[in-house]
Amino acid sequence: MHNDKDKFVNIAELNELKTEILTLRKQLFSDDISKTKNRLWIYEQKLSDNETFNDFGFMVSIKIANYEAIVKEYDSNVGNRLLKQVSDYMIGFMKEHHLKHEIVRYKDANFLIFFHGLNEEEVEDNMVNMQKSMSNYKFKYRSRMFMLTFSFAVMQYIENESFASVLDQLDDKLFQNQI
Amino acid sequence: MPIRTISDKQYKGVSELYRKSDGEVSGYYVTYRDIDGKPVKRRVDADNRDDALLELVDIKHEIDVQKQGNTMSATLPKTIKEILRQENKTHKPSIVFSGKTMQEHQQIISAYNGVAIVSLIDIVAFDDINILYGYEAGISIVDTMQDLIEEMLIEMRMSGLFSKHGIETFSYELYHVYADKLCLFIKNDFNHRLLDFIVKQLLTKISNHKFIVSEDGHIHINATVGATKAEGSVSLIYAEKALQEAKKFQNSYIFHDSYAMEKNEHIVNKVYETLIANINEETVTPYFQGIFATADCTVPYKFESLMRILDNDGRVLSPAVFMEKSKDYRLYTQLMIQMIDKVFDVMVKHDVAVTLNLSYIDINNTELCDKLISKVKKMKLGKRLTVEIVESEQIQDMDMVNEFIFALKKNGVMIAIDDFGSGFSNFDTILNLDIDYVKLDGSLVSKIHDKKYRIMLESMVKICHDLGIKTIAEYICDESIMEAARSIGVDYLQGYHLHKPSKWDSVKETFGFNGAQNA
User: Fold this and answer.
1) How far off is chain B from A2, nearest CA to CA, in Å?
2) What is the share, in percent, of chain A residues with pLDDT greater than 70?
3) B316 touching A, CB under 8 A?
4) Any A CB within 8 A of B315 CB
């Protein structure tokens, strides 16, 4: 009887520990200013040890237009708030359109989105719709109003393909696609 | 020699001393209140009206300083007269109260070469003031506002606010652009925080001021400000947008950023071109999403028709991209007329039951409503049509909407209310309108696994049933939500899990020729 009680306590403790580990894991892979994942998540979860993809799909690179000018004018606090609002907008859009995705803030105002279960045309269509609908949206921070947009580039990736190589190609495409 | 008062309001407090013999002005008097509040009239050493006005400003400033205590005077910067005398004449603050039109002001501001601040100051509920106190009182309030703005800028300048921020000289103009709107055009690249400070001070000054409307008393008013810092060519438009946004959300002040606007407008302009092209080329495309009876989710009971348009590359654009813009550009009705025609075509050719979304804007549009009713009558399609009233929170005239509803019902059309339970789409709406279906809001349905939401949705379904209204649950995006919706007694289901919106050709492929059972 006594042993059963001990066992029960141990299972409860283990469950608690499991929850804590999951929370810590979530925190470890979360971006510090938005509700997206962080760069570490890519290297730890998305890539194998040799920095190649461990799955397949489409990777989209997104750059928020004029972000540097905004930070220069209003400071990084305003910039960070806007990045959070923009990423919330993008997450909301993808949720509304039932898009299976993972979103990462890679650096500054550069986000990466990984799409699964869509073909290239569907990814492009969804990104164009996201870009155009966001251009109508008024982001607000305190009494300031911002109308933002972004450039994007799409690229398919397959298992064992080098992440750095796909990212380089995306950077080239992003440069060409710049608004 | 007699003294003549100057009628121009800009020179309030300055009088001219003139020779009766030849009418020539030979000197100037200024009128002010001394430290004890007693009126004083005194001659000043001035060559012209402007000099006399500057003398008066300096006198008033000295009195203010005395009132506040002598210790401050040591720390105060040079007086405005001294500042102005030292400044280059082109930098002298100029205040222009002109009778120019908005277009003329726009031309002046647009011609400005460089970054400038434009603030539009709008008096809240100015129409009420005109109606209650008369137009003269309204004009007097605008005049006083002009004085307040001018005074405040001079006070700020004298307190060293601008020099503290590295702005030694700048010029500004103040226009009275509409009945209740003033435009402060500052020809300087101010820091946005300094502008925020100025605007907040101004709003406080205005709301604290006692505006005289009659001999008996005064009133307090509030203002709304929309501002921007941008190139002259676009600054007035951005300030208008900021003011519009502030008024829409009842904010006292909105500042419109301009740094990301050029690229944003590049995209937005493309949306406008797309709207025009879809109207001209008649490419508005209805998409259809199945609505299923809870008991049988294999074949749709009816279809909701959803508007889509195509961009230059033939991509399908969702309503989030174009719907609000089409309303802003006043192009929405043209899109909707095409949509009605195309939905009716599908109903006729394929014997299906369809719901058509109409907003309060549509119901208010006589041409569109007449067209819809005559089409229903002529084609005898009423029994297969459900009109879904969207954004019902915007309904202001229930009687007018009910008239429209009854005109449709006489022809067999059913009525549904969209997004029930969110915002202001509530029980009041369903009690006041004669409706057949209620669509439970998707944001509530998506949280159905949360006990509180489940209880609320279950109660809503029960109340609707007691009132003889059938319920539809939107946002059925997975099996678990579908089962939960079924378990609370919802009559119909709709969502991506059951059917993704698609063109009619694709619907035909999925469900066969006559998909809907209610045909």
Assistant:
1) 36
2) 97
3) yes
4) yes
pLDDT, tens digit (0-9, with 9 covering 90-100), for A2-12: 567 777 778 88
For chain B, helix (H) and strand (E) counts, in that order, are: 19, 20
**What φ, ψ does residue B23 adopt, rounded to 5°?**
75, 5
CB B155 within 8 A of CB B76: no
What CA–CA distance (Å, rounded) separates B304 from B64?
70
Distance of alpha carbon B237 from alpha carbon B323, whole angstroms: 22
Instruction: Yes or no: say if B239 and B118 are a contact pair by the CB < 8 Å rule.
Output: yes
| Cβ contacts of B271 on chain A, cutoff 8 Å | 132, 135-136
**Residue B189 contacts A, CB cutoff 8 Å:** no
Say yes or no: A6 and A50 in one domain: no
A9 touches chain B (CB under 8 A): no
Cβ contact (<8 Å) for B320 and A74? Answer: no
- The domain in which residue A12 lies consists of 1-30
Is any Cβ of chain A less than 8 angstroms from the Cβ of B311?
Answer: yes
Interface test with B, best of A144, A151, A152, A179 (most B CBs within 10 A): A144
Q: Please tell me if residue A132 touches chain B, with a CB cutoff of 8 Å.
A: yes
pTM: 0.78
The alpha carbon of residue B261 is apart from the nearest alpha carbon of chain A, in Å, by 6
Same domain, A152 and A80: yes
Q: Are residues A46 and A15 in the same domain?
A: no
Provide, as residue numbers in chain A, all residues whose Cβ is less than 8 Å from the Cβ of B264.
65, 135, 147-149
Give domain B89-259's CATH number out of 3.30.70.270, 3.90.1150.10, 3.30.43.10, 1.20.1740.10. Answer: 3.30.70.270
- Contact residues on chain A for B245, CB-CB shorter than 8 A: 138, 145
Q: What distance in Å separates the CA atoms of residue B427 and residue A135, rounded to the nearest whole number?
A: 35
Q: Do A147 and B270 touch (CB under 8 A)?
A: no
Q: Are residues A51 and A109 in the same domain?
A: yes
Instruction: Using DSSP, state whether B306 is helix, strand or coil.
Output: strand
Give the class (CATH, top level) of B285-308+331-511. Answer: alpha beta
Q: How large is the ipTM?
A: 0.85
Residues A19 and A73 in one domain: no
Chain A neighbors of B257, CB-CB under 8 A: 70, 73-74, 144-147
Shared domain check, A133 and A65: yes
How many CA atoms lie within 13 Å of B365's alpha carbon, on the beta-carbon side? 17
Q: How many domains does chain A have?
A: 2
Chains A and B form CB pairs within 8 A to the count of: 86
Query: Hey, are the CB atoms on A132 and B316 less than 8 Å from each other?
Result: no
Does A15 lie in the same domain as A54? no
pLDDT (tens digit, 9 = 90+) per residue, A9-56? Answer: 788 888 888 888 888 888 888 999 999 999 999 999 999 989 999 999
> Rounded to whole angstroms, how far apart are CA atoms A15 and A20?
9
Segments making up each domain of chain B, as ranges: 3-76, 89-259, 285-308+331-511
Could you state, in chain order, the average pLDDT of each consecutive group of 10 residues for chain B (519 residues)?
A: 63 73 78 76 79 77 62 34 42 47 77 88 90 88 89 87 80 81 87 90 93 87 94 88 93 91 82 94 96 92 95 92 91 93 93 92 89 92 92 80 92 92 72 90 93 94 94 94 96 95 92 60
Residues A50 and A18 in one domain: no
How remote is the C-alpha of B154 from its chain's centroid? 31
Q: Give which of B350, B378, B278 is closest to B319, Cα–Cα.
A: B278
